[in-house]
């Protein structure tokens, strides 16, 4: 179910006042930075609570016990920064924000520092910076065939894959199975019925 604004997000997630304040600060910094570099489509900002915040936060319901996450191609901070904000009060939590573009990493680091998040920003290629985490995630990074290549080192270390995809997810999975063997589940996104959440396990290259 999509949500309309901050109040609806708080009601749906039971976010604390502190979490809501951090999310609003993040939105403010994103809006300011987006004016000088392309982090998100400007047309999506009026619907930021549903399109970006809720879209990201819903992943916590799919892995409620996960403490450590790696966000590949973290970009504007979705879903990684939102996850770090929602997990901030959890002592053993940590989120790795991995992106290959320096200016995006500088933005992410500013947000992490400003909000004192339990997060580490890594400027580099996702497949070359594998860390051991409970979940590896990504949004709007690459088609599934290529994305699974980026995520392979994390999945081989025991991570679950949770990937936010669009309405072509089913087609992407068919193409990916030409290169990879894996177990997967497909769920309808709660922020947009056209979107999908792809859960991946047991990844290996097809012979």
Automatic annotation (TrEMBL):
GO terms for molecular function: rRNA (guanine-N7-)-methyltransferase activity. The keyword Cytoplasm applies. It catalyses: guanosine(527) in 16S rRNA + S-adenosyl-L-methionine = N(7)-methylguanosine(527) in 16S rRNA + S-adenosyl-L-homocysteine. GO terms for cellular component: cytosol. SUPFAM superfamilies: S-adenosyl-L-methionine-dependent methyltransferases. Keywords: Cytoplasm, Methyltransferase, rRNA processing, S-adenosyl-L-methionine, Transferase. It is found in: Cytoplasm. It holds the Pfam family GidB. Its EC number is 2.1.1.170. The keyword Cytoplasm applies. Belongs to the methyltransferase superfamily. RNA methyltransferase RsmG family. This is Ribosomal RNA small subunit methyltransferase G. It comes from Brevundimonas lenta. The gene is rsmG.
């Amino acid at each position: 179910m999509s949500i309309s604004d901050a109040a609806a997000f708080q009601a749906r997630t039971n976010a604390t006042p502190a979490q809501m304040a951090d999310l609003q600060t993040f939105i403010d910094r994103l809006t300011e930075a987006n004016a000088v570099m392309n982090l998100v489509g400007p047309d999506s900002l009026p619907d930021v609570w549903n399109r970006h915040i809720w879209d990201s936060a819903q992943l916590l319901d799919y892995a409620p016990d996960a403490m450590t996450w790696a966000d590949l191609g973290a970009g504007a901070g979705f879903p990684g920064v939102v996850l770090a904000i929602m997990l901030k009060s959890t002592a053993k939590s940590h989120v790795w924000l991995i992106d290959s573009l320096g200016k995006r990493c500088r933005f992410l680091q500013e947000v992490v520092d400003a909000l004192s998040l339990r997060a580490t920003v890594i400027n580099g290629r996702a497949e070359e910076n594998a860390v051991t985490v409970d979940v590896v995630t990504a949004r709007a990074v690459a088609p599934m065939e290529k994305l699974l290549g980026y995520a392979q080192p994390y999945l081989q270390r025991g991570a679950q894959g949770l990937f936010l995809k669009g309405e072509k997810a089913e087609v992407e999975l068919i193409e990916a199975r030409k290169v990879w063997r894996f177990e997967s589940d497909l769920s309808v996104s709660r922020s947009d019925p056209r979107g999908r959440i792809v859960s991946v396990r047991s990844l290996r290259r097809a012979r």
